[in-house]
Structure formats: C-alpha cells, structure tokens
Amino acid sequence: MDRGRGRGGMLGLLLVQALSEYSRLDRRPPVTAGLIAANTVIYLRPKFLAPFLPTLNQVWFNPHLILKHKDLKRFILSAFYHIGEPHLVYNMMSLLWKGIQLENAMGSVEFASMVTVLVGMSQSITLLLAKALLLFDYERAYYNEYAVGFSGVLFAMKVILYSQSDNYTYVHGLMIPARYAAWAELILIQMFVPGVSFLGHLGGVLAGILYLNLKGLYSGPNPLVKVVRGLTRVLGWPLRFINSMARPSRSRVYGRGTTRRSEAAVWRCGACTFDNSGYLSVCEMCGTDRNGNGFGEYGGDSETPSVEELRELRVRRFGR
Fold first, then answer.
1. Spatial separation of the C-alpha atoms in residues 82 and 197, rounded to whole Å
2. Is there a catalytic annotation at residue 201?
3. What's the helix, strand, coil split of the chain in %, to 5?
4. Domain ranges in the chain?
5. Homologous superfamily, domain 11-240
6. 142, 187, 210, 270: which could join 292 in a potential S-S bond, CB 3.0 to 4.6 Å?
7. Which helix (H) or strand (E) holds 130?
8. Mapping DSSP to helix (H, G, I), strand (E, B) and coil, where does residue 288 land?
9. What is the rounded CA–CA span in Å between residue 53 and residue 50?
10. How does strand 257-260 pair with strand 251-254?
C-alpha cells in the first residue's frame, strides 16, 4: 500500500520487462499475467471502462470509512488501485517475479485461490490493527489513514515464497536469510521510503504467516480451488464455444479421399473392399455398383473380377 507517489513515464519499462520474462518461460503463468493486466488497466482507466470503474477517491482504504459505512468497495478494490506510475510499476515488477515462481510451483488454480485469500486476509488484518491501535489511543492516526496498492498482498507472497528456504537473499543491498526477507523489507521501506503504509505492509506479512499456519493445520482440499475452477469453466465457456465453432470437423480418410464423418454412412465395395462415401452409388475405386450386383465400368458382368481385371480398371480409371 502507498499513500503518495509522483508520476513518470515508466509503463514502457513494465511492458518490456514483462515481455522479456515471459518470452523466456516454457510455461507462461496466466493468473500472474491477468493480475498485472488488471492492475495496469485500472490505473490507465481507458474511456470505455471509465464509467464502470470507481475513482481513486472512492476506493481509498480508510479504516474509519470502511467500518462506519460498511464499505466493502474500499475494502476490496483498494488493493488494485495505484496512485502513480512508479507505485504501479514497482508493485507489478515485484508481482511478476513472485507470481511466476509461485504459480509455476503450485499451479494456476491453487495460485488464484491463494491470491484471493491473501487479499481478504491482508485487508482484514490491516483493518483490525488500525482499530486496535485506536482502542489503545495510539498517537499515530492509523485509523484515518488513506492507502491503496497491491503491496500488502506482495508482502504476504514473499513470506510464502521464502517460508521453506534456507538460502540467503539481498534486500536493498543487505544479505539476510531468505525466510526473514519480508520483515527486513518491511523495516527498511518504512525507514527510507516516505509515504508508505506501515500497517498495510505489516498486515500483508501477518497474512502470509497466517495463511501458512492455516494451510499446515488443514490437510483437506482447499474449498476455494473448486470455486476458482468452477468460475474458470464458466468464464471460459464463450471462448471454448467459439473455438469449437471455428475448429473444422474431424475427417476420416477413406482410401484416397476424405469426407466428413457426419455426412453419410460408409459402404464397403464387395469387389475391391474400398471404403466409399455414402453419397456415392458406384465404387470410387473400381466402379462396382453399391448393391454389388453389377460391375459398371467393366461391362455389367455379375461375376467378381479377378485381381488382374481390378488392376486394369484402376489403371484405366486413375491413369496409372
């Protein structure tokens, strides 16, 4: 989350970096790409979507307004809004790196369900922290703070990504154990980057820890996975329908030609055993009548032709 940033021409950098990373991947994670696209489109507010998208002032995460007016719009949508290009690009570059690793490791459906849970958890914990500090009459007015951004979810993702790691990683130039990277980044960003939401980032870290503990305690299937799969099937139905309409019908090969399976039944010539389309009344190979009572091209003899006679008919019919 962020409480204030400037503007700049950095969207091109995000596009180049995203294309560069995806071009090197054998499997391109669709959920990560979709999240980056959604955040970017919301920030750009194209004209055709502007009437349907709330403004930034309508979605600021503000604990007082959320609790007073039960404003779920602020509770959910504030995570997907950014107040400047540097803010957006920094968060989306972080999402690109973390999302690729997590989605490829756990699968797209599981990753989508995890992100859904983390959005709810990080926002809820931030809200509870702000309310708790107000009850303790803390001097900093977190309860009335305005914040937006995806960084709370990104902190939770970092906790999950490094939870089982014994390696070291760099955090703003400092090498520390990877499992403590989220805590170190939380402190360093608060110290050196003005205008960030400490409670929003802390809520993300705690959401990641809570998610890992709940997942460790619950060994059954994730119920959200079924929901996400159902939504994927529903939302993907129009695309599957269009693909089925555009895809040519399967064809079956009959001898030297093809015909659609649905066009007509196939009949086999009693003389040469060639499979013919049901639309033909005479064998395409040797000219025998479909009923097998005559030998059309051979002169109407009812006797079965010899192999040599069949060969002569084929040469005469196909010129070879």
1. 13
2. yes
3. 60, 10, 30
4. 11-240, 251-318
5. Rhomboid-like (1.20.1540.10)
6. 270
7. helix 108-135
8. strand
9. 5
10. antiparallel
- CA 285 to CA 316: how far, in whole Å? 11
- 259-282 in b/e form (b: 16+ CB < 10 A) is beeeeeeebebebbebbbbeebee
The residue from 78, 94, 122, 151 that is catalytic is 151
* CA atoms of 127 and 114, how far apart (whole Å): 20
- Choose, from 201, 219, 244, 306, the residue flagged as catalytic: 201
Number of Cβ within a 10 Å radius of residue 142: 19
- Tokens representing 35 are 């999240």
Q: Which two tokens stand for residue 97?
A: 């790196």
Q: What is the phi-psi region of residue 217: left when phi exceeds 0, alpha when psi lies from -120 to 50, beta otherwise?
A: alpha
Per residue in 96-133, pLDDT (tens digit) is 999 999 999 999 999 999 999 999 999 999 999 998 88
Tokens of 72: 């779920």
- pLDDT band of residue 248 (cuts 50, 70, 90) is low
Helix (H, G, I), strand (E, B) or coil at 194: coil
Question: Per-residue pLDDT tens for 91-103?
Answer: 999 999 999 999 9
